[in-house]
Here is the input.
Amino acid sequence: MSSKQTPDTPIARGEARGWSHNPSLPIGVNPTFAWPPRPAAALGWIGGTWLRFTPMVIIFLCAVVGNLLLPDAERMKTLAAGWMLEIWLRNGVLITLIAGGLHLYFITLAGQGKKFKFDPRDQARSNRQFLFNSQVHENVFFSLVSGTTLITAFEVLYQWAAANGVVPSFRLSLDQPWSILGFVALLLVIPAWSSLHFYWVHRLLHWPPLYRIAHRLHHKNVNVGPWSGVSMHPIEHVLYYSSVLIHFVVPTTPLLFIYHVCYEHLSPPFSHSGFEKVVIRDRERLKAGDFFHQLHHRHFECNYGTSEMPWDVWFGSFDNGTTESRERQRARLKAAKREAPRDDASLKLR
Here is the structure.
C-alpha cells in the first residue's frame, strides 16, 4: 500500500483519521490462537516472521553476536566490574546500532521522506516537557543510561548464576535431537511469553498512581521514534525487563537467554520507529513500525499487549484501527467510568 492516499484508501473513508499512512485495515493479531483453529494462517505468520529478513531475524543475529562476545564462564563465576562492563557495552552498542540506525535513516537523513510514516508530525524540539528540551535527546538518555544499565543488571545476575550452576539449563547438541526441538520451541515461545508478560505489566503501569510516577515518561512520546522504544522511567524498565526472569526457572541455553535480552531491548526501536517499513529505491526492504502499538500511543487505553498474542482481543481492549473499533473503545471506557468512577487524570497525561 502506498503512503500516498487516494479516495479509495481507508484514511479517505475515515477509518483511520489523523494518520498520514496506515496499513490495510482492520489490522489483525497472531492467528495461532484463533478459534476455530487456522493452521495455515498460523504457519504463514510464523514463516513471515522467521523465513524472511525481518526485525525478528535481525534480533536473533544480534543475539548470536552477543553470545559470541559473552565473557568466559570462569570469569563470570565472580562478580567483577570488568566483565559486567563488557556486557553493558555490548548491549549499549547493539541498541545504538538498531535505534540509532533507524533514526539516522528515517529522521536525520529522511531516507524515504514521510513515505509509510504513520504520524504526519515531526518529533518534538525545543519542548520543555522533555529533558534537554528535546524528545530525541531525552529518549537517548533514558534508553542508554537507564534501559541499557538495567537490562545489563538482569543479564549479569543470570550469567553469574549460570556460571555457578544454580539455574536450570540444557546443552544444545546435534547428537541430542530433543535439545534442538527444545531450542526451536523456546525460540518461538519467548515472544509469546514476552507478550503475555508485557500485557499485564503494561496494564499495571496504567494504574493512575504508577502511571503518574513512571509510565507517563514513556507516554510523552505520542509521536514516537526509534529511540522512544525503551525510553522509560527506571521503575518501568525493571518491570518490563523482568520478563527475562523466566529463565531462572525454565531450562534454557546461553544463546536463548541472550536472544530474550535482545528481544526485550531491541524490538521496541522497530515497533516505535513510526514508519511501517523501510523502503530503498522504491522497494520494501524491511518491515519496521507496528501500527498496533502506534494506536496505543495515540489513543492510550487500548492495545496494551502486542500482536503476538490476542490478549487485547480477549479482554476487549483491541483497537483494529477502524472507525467502528475506535467507537467501541470509547463506549467501553465510558461504561467503565460509569461503573467505577475514579481519578482519571492519568488519561490526560500524554
